[in-house]
Write a structure and sequence with these properties.
CATH superfamily of the domain at 43-139: Cytochrome c-like domain
Signal peptide: 1-22
Order of helices and strands: HHHHHHH
CATH architecture of the domain at 43-139: Orthogonal Bundle
Radius of gyration: 27 Å
Number of strands: 0
Organism: Chitinophaga fulva
Bound molecules: heme C
Oligomer: single chain
Structural class: mainly alpha
GO molecular function, one term: metal ion binding
InterPro entries: Cyt_c-like_dom, Cyt_c-like_dom_sf
Protein name: Cytochrome c
Distance between the termini: 71 Å
CATH topology of the domain at 43-139: Cytochrome Bc1 Complex, Chain D, domain 2
Helix content: 55-70%
């Protein structure tokens, strides 16, 4: 057999094989991002219960829940996640620095609370609170 013909036959064989041979379905992989999000949510929930729920009850939308934290990240000055961290680290310091948003919130609620969690939580923990509040506030 001439080498050229052999090549063509091999090529046809390969094409036929690959079109008939069905590859098995790809197994569903658990995305590490999902795992991180769930872990963040759970940590955020525990922190919320510990530090915030006494006043905010739940960030959940509707019903008898206090809705102060619903739509929070759409409302806070951008970048809102960073702003949130600064706010709960020390809301009084923000007000005293004349930050318009913090001054307005304090005025609207008659200045009843002071957030000073700088020493109680790490920034990573505050980020998990963000995950929790975002998820709960969208329900
Ligand atoms: C002692 C009660 C109390 C606790 C504890 C508390 N908050 Fe608040 N929070 C308030 C009140 C009251 C306001 C309204 C603003 C004010 O009075 O200064 C507020 C305002 C806020 C705001 C601003 C709301 C807006 O419309 O922008 C955020 C965000 C917030 N709290 C998050 C938290 C988080 C997160 C925690 C827990 C780490 C927490 N708070 C713990 C009572 C509390």
């Amino acid at each position: 057999m001439r080498p050229c013909l052999l090549l063509v036959l091999t090529a046809i064989g390969l094409i036929t094989y690959s079109s008939c041979h069905q590859s098995p379905p790809t197994p569903v992989k658990t995305d590490s991002t999902e795992i991180k999000l769930v872990a963040g949510f759970q940590q955020g929930e525990a922190l919320f219960r510990r530090y915030c729920a006494s006043c905010h009850r739940s960030p959940k939308r509707g019903g008898h829940h206090n809705e102060m934290l619903v739509g929070l990240f759409e409302r806070m000055p951008a970048p809102s996640t960073q702003y949130f961290i600064r706010y709960i680290q020390d809301s009084r310091a923000l007000e005293q620095a004349g930050d318009q948003y913090a001054v307005a919130v304090a005025r609207d609620y008659n200045h009843t609370a002071n957030h000073h969690f700088r020493d109680s939580m790490t920034v990573a923990e505050m980020r998990s609170l963000i995950v929790y509040i975002r998820v709960m506030g969208s329900r």
